[in-house]
Amino acid sequence: IHDDGLAAIKNATDIKSIRENIRVKLLGKKGPITQALRGIKDLAVQDRPKVGSYANKVRDDLQAALDAKIADLENKKLNQQLAAEKIDVTLPGTPVAKGHPHVIQSIIDEITDLFLGMGYEVLSGPEVEEDKYNFEMMNLPKNHPARDMQDTFYITDEILMRTQTSPMQARTLEKHDFTKGPLKMISPGVVYRRDTDDPTHSHQFHQVEGMVVSETITMSDLKGTLELLTHELFGNKFNVRLRPSYFPFTEPSVEADITCFNCMGKGCSVCKGSGWIEVLGAGMVHPNVLRNAGVDPDKYTGFAFGLGPDRLAMLKYGVSDIRDFYLDDVRFLSQFN
Ligand code: FA5
């Protein structure tokens, strides 16, 4: 029993069968050892201790072998399980498609960085704006004919979708404390116009407003700033040209053209043969705009500009249709990653 039992335990491969078969068979109530121990009382008195202690030894040996085998099998099972569940953290992961800023946002970020570096504040204003800030304080009273230059989405008589970022000039002038120094701000944002969409016009587009007001600002400060801006954005191969223009809120007013990216100034269909492309409006802040915001026009002067980053992005990347920026076609947008 002893040797056969140990051999059966040694060869066993399955914990359940050890517990249910081998253990029950060898050490159970009906097993040979229990029987032998029970039969001791029938033996001669002098034989009882010898048989008894031998039967106990066999039982203890088998029990110890069973316990060791079960521990060994459990250990093996655990190791197998650990090996099967092992994770190789060095395997490459499943790639996740990463987003990136929209190309127009990237241009706005570039412009913002440049002006932050020159000590300008960066402000944002409401897209749903009061007529007062969008037009009236900007020297465009009700029924002023120049309101027609910017076809407007009205919400009520007094509330509209802003047609330009210029209302931020009025909002900032109204608040600025000139005893603390000059006003220098840019304000990027979205504007809306009832324009018919075409390759260079969208009914929703972006502008970046800029304004500097102090006691000493002249037109040459404006030209220098605009030249710096275009050279930073486009490099030195492009030239800037200021052309007389009209805006009700600046006097004198200019529009800035830069060398046409398509023909480099020679004249082509993109620039309608002129060699130049218009990118922004600007000028010296009109005395009425200063006065309307409570700033003394005899003491302070300033320049302001409003540029269209959508058009700048078209120039920079040679995009021929502004509508492509708003179609959310990832194949188009991912080119600018
Ligand atoms: C204005 O909106 C003035 N507020 C600019 C200004 C600011 C002048 C400060 C003086 C002082 P304008 O309507 O020209 O001006 O628009 C400015 C720029 O916005 C244009 O040069 C052009 O780049 C862009 N823009 C105008 N309309 C559209 C449109 N429908 N789609 C895309 N870009 C446009």
TrEMBL record:
It is an enzyme of class 6 (ligase). It is found in: Cytoplasm. Its EC number is 6.1.1.20. Its cofactor is Mg(2+). Keywords: Aminoacyl-tRNA synthetase, ATP-binding, Cytoplasm, Ligase, Magnesium, Metal-binding, Nucleotide-binding, Protein biosynthesis. GO terms for cellular component: cytoplasm. Mg(2+) binds at E251. GO terms for molecular function: ATP binding; catalytic activity, acting on a protein; magnesium ion binding; phenylalanine-tRNA ligase activity; transferase activity; tRNA binding. It comes from the Bacteria. Residues 103-315 form the Aminoacyl-transfer RNA synthetases class-II family profile domain. Its main location: cytoplasm. NCBIfam families: pheS. Tetramer of two alpha and two beta subunits. Belongs to the class-II aminoacyl-tRNA synthetase family. Phe-tRNA synthetase alpha subunit type 1 subfamily. This is Phenylalanine--tRNA ligase alpha subunit. It comes from Nicoliella spurrieriana. The lineage of its organism: Bacteria, Bacillati, Bacillota, Bacilli, Lactobacillales. The gene is pheS.
